[in-house]
Amino acid sequence: MKTNILTLALSFLAMTAFAQKSEIKDAEDAIEDGNYAQAKTQLNKAEQLLSEANDKWTERFYLYKGQAYLGSGENVSLEDLKTAAAAYQKAADMGADGAEDGLIAVRNSLVQGAIADQNAQEFENAADKLYTSYELSGKTDTIHLYYAANNAVQAGDYDTGLEYLNTLNEIGYDGSGTEYYAVNTETGEEELMGSKEQQDLMVKTNQYKDPSERKIPSKKGDITSLIARIYVSQEKYEEAEEAMEAAISANPDDLELKQVQANMYYNMGDKEKYNEIMEQVVEQAPDNASLYYNLGVNSADLGNNDKAMQYYQKAIELDPEMTDAKLNMVAVILGKEREIIDEMNNLGMSKEDNKRYDELQEQRNQIYKDAIPYLEEVIENKPSNIEAIRTAKNIYTQLGNEEKVAEMDAMLENQQQ
User: Fold this and answer.
1) Which InterPro entries match (predicted)?
2) pLDDT by residue (tens digit) across 72-89?
């Protein structure tokens, strides 16, 4: 009786092993036919009794599982790519031929998927795929961590972006080196490969051709700059100041970075420091109208209207189409009226007071005359600017120019139709 039981047990194990081998073989056939969903189904069945398989069939199981979850490599979900990578890694650990190439193919699919996500502005997905590729490289392919950080920041996930960037700083990542490209034979588009190995592999498949490479500069400055910008956006100004100094030290000619530093001090309420830095920026870019405009805005906020007018005028000279500079110039000019009106209201009825009133009225009219040319330019270039038309109408009314008042009324009526 014991012999019969043992015989039955051995028969059961033999049947199990046979069924398992059959399912693995069926998965192989499905993969060859491109039916990856069916291959997954067969492999899921085989996996339930994988402990009964010998090393040869276990090795084949993981290799086919990697192939099934990688599929064609196009439009593969991140979870499936992670599953494929884990399977290929187990197959590689067992010495399976083709497993290492499978891992490279998974990483290439991750990179190409990340590029597609970037183009679709799905930055969070791109960051996840690039970070996964970085991990699959044994954390040696640090350029993928760099791009993962940038995509995380683009997605608004500043904490993750900062974590990746600080890691790059800690390991002394430089980023200079070589990028590898190849042309997709189907689309005709040049695509970035993850490494020289990936480039070689994809060209061998005939899915890509015309391999090329490009030298890339150091990214240390970009990293420190991005860290500083993140701290500024998070209003962590103490950390931001320290990071910003490091960023500018690494990028002394980066005017945009200095503007970020200036804006940081502006947001901190230190407008004097803002002006100091912006004036340095202007010295380096004397033909940049936007810089003069920004200086004008800040000078006006500080109450230095004469300086503000100088900056606005310079901005207009450099960019005659800058409407905002002209409107701000009008606002500063008309701002002088308040003091005159206050004095007029406090005058009495004496002969001297009447004389002073006339003098002040002349000064007031001159203010209007100074503002009108800027308003007329705005209206000429942008006849739909209702606020500019209304302001001009009020000024013409004060100056008694009825013809111009009628013209402004007509323009306002056209805008309401």
Assistant:
1) CellSynth/LPSAsmb/PSIAsmb, TPR-like_helical_dom_sf, TPR_rpt
2) 878 888 998 998 889 889
